Amino acid sequence: MASPTPPPPSEPQSFTPMNKEMLSVGGTCQFLTCDNYDFLPFRCESCHGRFCQDHRTEAGHKCAQAGEWARRRMQQQSNRTLSSTTTTLNQKPTTLTATQCSHPQCKTFIDTLNSVGVICSTCNRKYCLKHRIPEDHDCNKITPLGARQVSVGLRQTDKAKAALGRLKIWGKEKQAAVLPKPKPSSAASRVIALNQLKRTAKGDEKIPQDKRIYLHVEAEANTTTSKLPKGEFWYNKAWSIGKLLDDAARGLQVQNVNNRGGGEEERLRVFHVEGGRLLEFAEKAEDVLAQGNTIVLLRGIGPISTDA
Q1: What pLDDT score was predicted for residue 186?
Q2: Least CB-packed of 9, 64, 99, 164 within 10 Å?
Q3: Ramachandran angles phi, psi of 39, nearest 5°
Q4: Residue 122 near residue 108 (C-beta atoms within 8 A)
Q5: How far is CA 58 from the centre of its chain?
Q6: pLDDT tens across 268-279, in order?
């Protein structure tokens, strides 16, 4: 039996016939005056109609239910917010789900059904009802939230400058008392005072007697906080003022952050009463101090010239 003859090859055409299956993809625009067929039509979320790109917006196809999708979305968001708030209020407050009073010794949860939080307008922190009054949370000692730290530094510097001015006056008065005009009894009185100082002074026992310099040491109360306001100590007169300051701060139990690289407002300085000036860290004690002198530890003043 002869095999069927294959059909002759078709001649090349300038178009490609469309497959009928392609008609199942996309759809016709449902706008009344538009019959465009779009393979990727848009669905209106308000009326759920199918439209081409030109008529996809509510205004473009004059949607009969314009704004419905927006109202529906707002209602859903409102329901979610209400549900979340109800869940938060119903659960037991913890450090993860609630806010505590800003007072360091208070652990009361605020902004709950049982306790309302109150914001202090001075320090911008939120407190419970018990600590809402500024006097109850020491508001004047707290740096307000959002305040620039430089302003605190400036206040500290101004305070230190005022303290230095008082120390200058005090130094002149001290000079008049400690160094009176030469009299036959002045040298003897100074020797007696020095001997009394040596009996009460404290220091490193490893420092040889001939290397010791005996000083009165005080901490300026307005710029520093110390457990011991003043004392009598001996130091090695070969030490630099910086090393002497470190030892003096330990003796009076004054916080010393000079070696941590902080700002000048936190650094300690040494004021020499008899000399009436601030001493540089690199100066030697034996070059600028004498037996029985008084030095004062002062914070935040910086290397300011005392001649001004």
Answers
A1: 67
A2: 9
A3: -75, -20
A4: no
A5: 51
A6: 888 888 888 888
Strand locations in the chain (E)? 27-28, 37-38, 42-43, 50-51, 99-100, 109-110, 118-119, 126-127, 212-219, 230-236, 268-272, 277-279, 294-299
Confidence grade of residue 51 (pLDDT, cut at 50, 70, 90): confident
Distance in Å from the first CA to the final CA of the chain: 128
pTM for this one? 0.42
Between CA 79 and CA 87 the distance in angstroms is 12
Q: What letters, b where the CB count within 10 A reaches 16 and e where it falls short, cover 268-290?
A: bbbbbbbbbbbbebebebeebbb
- What is the rounded average pLDDT of the residues 18-37? 70
136 is written with which tokens? 């109850």
Burial group, residue 298, by CB count within 10 angstroms (0-12, 13-18, 19+): buried
DSSP-derived 3-state class of residue 124: coil
- How far apart (Å, rounded) are the C-alpha atoms in residues 300 and 269? 8
